[in-house]
């Protein structure tokens, strides 16, 4: 599905895809997209995998400032006497 | 808290750090991709915030203002350490950058255990690390930190429209990049 081969309906769907996922489309345009998705396996795959991509990133463990780095931060800001105990 | 910060109350500074340093660190680490650099960005952010607290006009949330300081600090470092990377990014953004989906295998329904591996998580980290910085900052704040379009626009000094465009590009770019890995994984199951 290279750019020149992409059917116009699919090009339009890709253009509006984020607005669709974020619920920012008019009800009419949303209905058009859903109708297209019901018949276009390629666009369905793109929407599914964009959703999955976002979910995978949201599920990643969140990096945390180490206790030593937190202590260095307080010291650098001359706040070491206000350093709360590590939770 | 703001009033006490303006009055130079050090207990308030500690409260502010406790409240906001985890998110500032996550943004700094996503941008710099280096723990020591991210730690320096966090220090710089709170140093500049406490020093310049009188310049904070309160029109945005304090957290948004801190993200803005952290983003600027991280960018300054990136430009100093990797100026060539920033110009390569400009080039990368000028092509279609994944805006035209080419990988069309629907890998979203692979068994959950395929996503829950160290290898898959490393692939996700590699992919977001390769995402051009301008897209990465928007993706991080919108998708990972849960900021609204308007808050992200304020934090990154962009228009809301630019935030939407960059988020769209980031989503498609990451999807395309991850599709290579997960499609190969799906085909390996078939073999």
- The shape of chain A is rod-shaped
Characterize the main sheet of chain B: none
| Helix/sheet category of chain B | mainly alpha
Proportion in helices of chain A: 55-70%
Mean pLDDT of chain B: 91
Class per helix and strand makeup of chain A: mainly alpha
Mean pLDDT of chain A: 92
Largest sheet of chain A: none
Give structural notes.
The complex is a heterodimer of chains A (87) and B (191). Chain A is 64% helix and 0% strand. Chain A has four helices and no strands. Chain A has helices at 8-21, 27-39, 41-59, 67-76. In chain A, helix 1 runs parallel beside helix 3 (41-59). The longest helix of chain A has 19 residues, at 41-59. By secondary structure, chain B is an all-alpha fold. Chain B has helices at residues 2-6, 10-32, 35-51, 62-81, 83-94, 112-115, 118-130, 133-144, 149-156, 160-190. In chain B, helix 8 (133-144) crosses helix 10 (160-190). The model of chain B has no long low-confidence stretch (mean pLDDT 91). Classes of the chains: A mainly alpha (87), B mainly alpha (191). Chains A and B meet through helix 1, helix 3 and helix 4 of A and helix 2, helix 3, helix 7, helix 8 and helix 10 of B.
Topology overview:
The complex is a heterodimer of chains A (87) and B (191).
Chain A: H1 8-21, H2 27-39, H3 41-59, H4 67-76
Chain B: H1 2-6, H2 10-32, H3 35-51, H4 62-81, H5 83-94, H6 112-115, H7 118-130, H8 133-144, H9 149-156, H10 160-190
Helix pairs in contact in B: 2-3, 2-4, 3-4, 4-5, 4-9, 7-10, 8-10, 9-10
Overview in brief:
The complex is a heterodimer of chains A (87) and B (191). Chain A has 87 residues and is mostly helical. Chain A has helices spanning 8-21, 27-39, 41-59, 67-76.
